Every structure is written in structure tokens, then in C-alpha cells.
Amino acid sequence: MTVMFLLVISMSIALITAESSVYFREQFEDGDAWKSRWVESTHKSDYGKFVLSAGTFYGDAEKDKGLQTSQDAHFYALSSRFKEFSNKHQPLVVQFTVKHEQSIDCGGGYIKLFPSDLKQEDMHGDSTYNIMFGPDICGPGTKKVHVIFHYKGKNHLINKDIRCKDDEHSHLYTLIVKPDNTYEVKIDNKKVESGSLEDDWDFLPPKKIKDPDARKPEDWDEREKIDDPDDKKPEDWEKPENIPDPDAKKPDDWDDEMDGEWEPPMVTNPEYKGEWKPKQIDNPVYKGKWVHPEIDNPEYTADPEIYKYNSIGVIGLDLWQVKSGTIFDNFLITNDPKLAEEVGNETWGATKVMDKKYLSIKTDQKEHAYYI
Ligand SMILES: *[C@@H]1O[C@H](CO)[C@@H](O)[C@H](O)[C@H]1NC(C)=O
Fold first, then answer.
1. Binding residues
2. How far is the CA of 349 from the centre of ligand 1 (A)?
3. pTM for the full predicted model
4. What are the cysteine partners in each disulfide bond (predicted)?
5. How does DSSP classify residue 66?
6. Which sequence spans correspond to the domains of the chain?
7. 88-141 residue pLDDT tens
8. For residues 107 and 142, what is the distance between their CA atoms, to the nearest angstrom?
9. 20-206+303-355, what's its fold?
């Protein structure tokens, strides 16, 4: 009793004292100061420029300012550093908004989380990252949310197809990775996908494999039905498929010398029965489909820490866009899913309503620019 009681008490204390940490937050609400927090890579000389903008329509002219891609057909490589942390034993929540107000044809809208040893000035497409997350659009064929995890030297893409938003509004993307090796993806604060890391990515080899020593016995009969050996083709079965039309008459004015020998046209034989096939009967020695027995895969070792990264220290926008104009805003990295939901409501949730209202005016009255 007492032990139980103490356990309950200590558990509640653990719950109460579990603090939420915000590792990174960026709202772009202090003018040009973001330039001191974000570093442009110089790995290539012609990366596209990000500019601070709320775009051509918005809910709030100040709050909706974010980083906007400003040059068509360019690569972008920008990143921001925060105090290094590990998500060991804690949830990891990454959240941000993406607004493709240019009505994007092809381009990335995702972020990458890097280990703290990333050289930001040299960040590029092949820099090793921990997680890549967010929307990616290219033509009608690709409209998906990437969730890629770096695990033991390899990038692993999710096995499921998560559709991203492809309209011109601002949308909130959230990834939650939990220490019990489960995950959740939310769009606009609504769950769109969830499950277990082990099931939805190919991090580990399969738990079971087909027994390499098992063979289907030679006499295993998998035929459910067989030809009836007692069924014989009737003797009068064979009839030609087409016969000369018995009703056809040689025309009166037919001239054998001029027209050649008269032949009646061919018609389908009403007595033709087609190809003969014996009746099918149940196979008396049918054994069912042979199932290859499975054994535990000797290559498989469970990993209770698939979710874990020892070092997370940089968030980056490393992407390609054909038609620029995408605005990234409201970046948040925390260990607290509830807090992220609240922040999502207060930022994206508060201004998107107005942003929608503006768009409906725009549609009704063509291009009259009514900013709210
Ligand atoms: C966020 O907003 C939704 C919709 O209004 C609401 O249902 C939800 O409880 C809010 N979440 C938090 C954490 O405030």
C-alpha cells in the first residue's frame, strides 16, 4: 500500500516538474534583426535571397511577416542556430507555417534540423541532417509532406503518403516525435498521420523472414479444381465455326464467265459449340496454398531509441523553388506538444481567418486589393 502510494506521489511530482522547454522560436517581428540570427550559406555563389515580407495578402501586416523566397528558379540555403539539445526521453516538436501565396508549381516548403556541428556557411543539399520535415510540391504528381529521419548513416523516407496543402493560404505544419518511438504529423493543428517509427519507416530489417530452409514438398498439390477425368468430349462436338449461307441463292444475272464461279457468303454456324473443355471438379488431393513458414530474422535487433538524436542545434531552409514567393514563419521547436498547439492557435490560428476573408474578397471582386 505504502509503496504504491509513494509511487503515485512521485509520479505526480514528476509530471508537475516536467517542464516545457522552447529550444527555438522565430516570429520575425523585429525588423531586420533576423539577419543577425540567420546565416546564408556560401557553399554556392548564387543562392536565392530570402526577404522579410507578409506577402500581398495577410491577416496582420506585422505578425504575418516571415521569410519569403524572392527569386525564381533558385536554390536557397539559410539557417539559424540555437543552443544544442538532445530529445532523449522527451518529445520533440517542430512546427512552422508555410504560405505558397504565389500558387506554387514546383518547390520545397520544408525545414531541416541539423546537428550542432553543422557549418552554417557551408550548408548545402548534402549536409547531414537529423530530420527533414514539411511540404514539397512539384507539378500535380508530387504534393506531399516529407518526414525523413537520418538513422545510422542513412536517410529514411516515411512509407506513408501524407498529402500537403497546395493552396495560397498559410498552413501550420507540426511534427511530433515521442520517446516511445511514435510520431504524429499535424496540418493546421489537426492530426493527419500518426503511428510507430518502426512500422512507418524502414529503419530496421524486418522482424520475421521466410525460413530459408523450408521448401514446398514436391507432392504438394495447390490446384483447387481439376479436369473431370470422366468427362469426355461428345463425338458430335466438332462443328465448323462458319458455314456457307444455306439461304443464299445465286443471283439470276450471275455470269460465271464474267463474274467467276459463284460462292455463297459464309455465316456463323448455329451448331458450332466452341472449344470443348472438360468439367471442373474439386481436386481430391488439394492441400491448400502452401505458406512459406517464417522465422525470427537473425539480422533484427530492436532499438528502443530510434527517435533519439544526441545533438540538435540548427534549423535550416535548404530548398529549390521554380516559382518563388513562399513565406516561412512561426518557427517553433519545443518538447511540449500542447504548448505548440497553443502557439499555433495564437499565431497561425489568429491571423489565418483574416487571410481567408481577404482571399474571398479578392475572388469576388477580381483584383481589388482590400487589405484588412
Ligand atoms: C486550439 O484551437 C482549437 C480550435 O479552436 C481548440 O479546439 C483547441 O483546444 C486549441 N488548443 C489549445 C491548446 O488551446
1. 27, 63, 65, 110, 112, 129, 136, 318, 329
2. 9
3. 0.77
4. 106-138
5. E
6. 20-206+303-355
7. 999 999 999 999 999 899 999 999 999 999 999 999 999 999 999 999 999 989
8. 10
9. Jelly Rolls (2.60.120)
